[in-house]
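FORM 7B - TANDEM STRUCTURE REPORT

SECTION 1: FIRST PROTEIN
SEQUENCE AND TOKENS:
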Amino acid sequence: MSSEDIVRRLADGIGVCINGPNPFDIQVRNPAAYGRIVAHGSLGLGESYMDGWWDCDDLAELFHRISRHQVDRQLRPSAALVAEMLKARLLNLQSLRRARIVATEHYDQTIDAYRAMTDRWITLSCGYWKDAGTLDEAQEAKFSLIARKLRLSAGQRILDVGCGFGAFARFAAERFGCSVVGINVSVEQARAARELAGSLPVEVHVCDYRQTSTYWDGRPFDAAVSTGMFEHVGWRNYRAYMTTVAEVLAPGGLFLLHTVGSNTSSRMNDPWFDRYIFPNGLLPSIAQIGASIEGLFVMEDWHNFGIDYDKTLLAWNANFDRNWPGSRTDRFYRMWRYYLLAAAGMFRSREKQLWQIVLSKGGTRGGYASVR
């Protein structure tokens, strides 16, 4: 069976027609795409799109179908992918020595893209769309939700692990009178976060979460939060991550973990996303998170609003398309569009989740009431 026959068969199985009339159909511009997809799976599919070998008007719906039917599992893994799988099993890809790879190869290089796509707070994680109509409203609703879940009040000291551009830190300082210490491995994001914070009681340190001597003065934090950072920790380090947070948190303190999650436990990232978007990233499973907190935290609440990431990613893509100054045929533009819309489809399929998990150090006296 030829590569074209294989791709057409796979497409037929998910209701997609090659060169068909529907917006989610694939329009092949270069027939060499067939062989590239069959030989390299997810990586070949993404790279051939970046190179303009195929197009699709509705990438989000295409990936909803691809993800829901787990098409990637129907292709034999290439020798290169097998080698990557072996490396992920044998090595700690997110060790302290390698911690800045995602910063230098992704976050420090994509400041302009993030500014083009995000809300007025420059927020890099999923919004909360329950009662929101715009991206700005959804992100503020998310901040408010986190604040209520953490029971923030004036004078509290908060640790923000992986603080991005400092959006939540500014929100907590402005709206609740908290002082916030943020840590980030990205030099460029940390610089921007400090500038945006101005005179607010917000400190931002460039360091890894394991380097507590860099950001901690020994006084326990009243609460801790991490939004969109745990995806970079890696399965070998989940326990160390939770141990570190528990050590700097006051007894009875609350920790809110906001993370993308996977339905299955894995040890490696999607090959295309690993190469072009989040090097050495990995989505945790419920089992992996559960094992990492055992004996350290009481799990008080687990909230899944993964479908809201579909809406967030579509809003980001609309902003990016409207604000990006470069050519629409540029390889970076096509890569970023592919990233946002492919991810939207994955969340729409329910293959990926968005969890907000509230943990307490020693348990909340009298119990914890869920907040939605």
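SECTION 2: SECOND PROTEIN
SEQUENCE AND TOKENS:
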Amino acid sequence: MSYLDRSFFQNPLMEYFKWLINKSKYQLKYWGKHLRIGYKSKVFNSDFDVYNWIANDVILINSSLGRRTYIQSGASISNCAIGAFCSIGPNVIIGPGKHPTTDFVSSHPSLFSNPPNLMNNFVGESVFKNYDEVNIGSDVWIAANSIILDGVKIGHGAIVAANSVVTKDVAPYSIVGGTPAKVIKFRFSDEQIASLIKFKWWEKDDDWIRNNISLFWSIEKFVDNINLKL
């Protein structure tokens, strides 16, 4: 079956209006929650909380963002649940999709699925699931140009160094880097990490954070203070 080559109809003006319609749809839906979607970013079937910021040229598909999480320019994110207070750096790719590597004779999608972009396929419906959801905790920083593969879970407070490829789960409050990413170190002591995970400061309201903001500048003071309340 042949498909119309839609690239003939693409032009800057049409792309602008498509972006404007998409942006307006979401920002009206989340009116009062201070959602911002940057120029030429594309958002599909995704959910937001409050104070989410999407920079320019971002693709966000089938995903959700927690409170105050932001995404820098050029990121591409699919099938991902992201917690609160997360920082997603520029050109990060999350959930790029999967191809079969065993059992199936070929890794080419036309032989096991029916994607429209390939125009002519050998099956009418997919016999291979080409994605798994990625789950990212709260207070996570994923630095520039990193790739997070399908099905990975990243714990609260973790940091992924720039240019990393994450192929397996990341422990809470660890710093990982490299290709494939490996643990470089943990940000805090085991006792401090346990207190942070139990307390879940990212679930506190803005007033609590504002009234205790100076505690965030010292892990020792923060943990000493919250341990009195646990």
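SECTION 3: OBSERVATIONS ON SECOND PROTEIN
DSSP finds four helices and 18 strands in the chain.
Residues 188-230 form one domain.

SECTION 4: SIGNATURE
Preparer initials: ____
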